[in-house]
Design brief:
Elements: H1 2-17, E1 21-25, E2 30-34, E3 39-44, E4 49-54, E5 61-68, H2 75-90, E6 96-102, E7 105-114, H3 120-128, E8 132-141, E9 144-153, H4 159-171, E10 174-175
Antiparallel strand pairs: 1-2, 2-10, 3-4, 4-5, 5-9, 6-7, 7-8, 8-9
């Protein structure tokens, strides 16, 4: 009987791994849907939150940066700054413009090729993976700037699958709180019906 229970539990765990999972990020302000078998991590920085989502085996990456602003966002300026800083960090010399719809907004962006810096363990490993193909997109959702970057390498087994998965994750981005400019809660509790 115990073996049967353990087998049923194992089947249940394997079945769970075959379905996408929903995660909340940026202190509960946003939600993302992660493909089955992909992993995710979030790291809070002093001025932004960094979210990384990777396919099995780390064969590429989708990264998101969330930065709150107290003033009216200027999405085009943020996109330009995000793109140029990524290009500079990866040593890119030229880029092809592009855009992607994320959470009902058109994010400006670009595709380019570059090489990750060789500093640190992650940089050394990324350098060994070869030239990086990168897509960056930036914009604003409510009063939160969102930067999105998809990265594959020369050694990525199926770059199209990685990019398709990253695009699906980005398109799943949903604002959950008023801080992010998403669904709002009523300022006053709803009135009870008269009895």
């Amino acid at each position: 009987m115990r073996a049967l229970t353990l087998a049923a539990l194992g089947v249940a765990l394997v079945a769970c791994e075959k379905h996408p999972k929903t995660i909340t990020v940026h202190r509960g302000a946003f939600q993302l849907t992660v493909p089955a078998g992909w992993s995710s991590s979030e790291e809070a920085q002093p001025t932004f939150d960094h979210v990384s989502i990777t396919p099995p085996g780390g064969d590429g990456a989708c990264t998101f940066a969330f930065t709150d602003t107290s003033s009216e966002p200027l999405p085009a300026q943020y996109e330009e700054n995000f793109r140029t800083s990524a290009m500079k960090a990866l040593g890119a010399t030229s880029a092809t413009p592009d855009s992607l719809e994320i959470s009902g907004a058109r994010f400006g962006g670009a595709h380019f090729k570059g090489r990750p810096p060789a500093s640190g363990v992650v940089g050394v490993l990324a350098t060994l993976a070869g030239e990086a193909s990168v897509e960056t997109y930036g914009g604003a959702i409510g009063k939160t700037y969102v930067g999105v970057m998809f990265t594959t390498f020369e050694t990525t087994g199926d770059p199209k699958a990685v990019l398709d998965g990253c695009r699906a994750v980005a398109r799943s981005l949903d604002a959950l709180s008023t801080r992010a400019g998403g669904a709002t809660m009523p300022e006053h509790p709803p009135r009870r019906p008269a009895r």
